[in-house]
Specification:
Layout: E1 19-25, E2 31-37, H1 39-48, E3 52-55, E4 60-63, E5 72-79, E6 86-92
Parallel strand pairs: 1-6
Antiparallel strand pairs: 1-2, 3-4, 5-6
């Protein structure tokens, strides 16, 4: 099946102009975190080669690792079949979670 390339403007951003980005380690396939991007932060990510997100609470752009040194170097960016979510594979330096854990998904729900 031949996949047609798309442009950032073709993605389906929500009513706030955001799209969820699932961040995955490119080697281990471990899901590291989920954050949100708008069109500009996605453009910055593609240009920098490091993940850049939109902070919904602070209302500002942030490059992962800029303060901690725990950068995420982008290996690939994929989008889902509905064009409303991103899967970004990265080479993670240090912890992905602000708690110091490698992944933000270190806790489990009880039955």
């Amino acid at each position: 099946m031949k996949v047609q390339p798309i442009r950032i403007k073709d993605l389906k951003f929500d009513k706030n102009g955001l799209i969820p980005a699932i961040i995955q380690d490119y080697k281990s396939k471990e899901v590291l975190m989920v954050a949100y991007m708008n069109a500009e932060s996605l453009c910055r990510t593609m240009k920098l080669g490091k993940t850049c997100f939109w902070s919904r609470s602070r209302k500002e752009y942030w490059v992962k690792g800029m303060t901690s040194g725990h950068f995420q170097f982008v290996k690939s960016v994929a989008y889902d079949c509905d064009l409303d979510a991103l899967l970004i594979k990265v080479r993670q330096v240090g912890a992905a979670c602000h708690t110091g854990n490698r992944s933000c998904f270190y806790r489990r729900l009880k039955k």
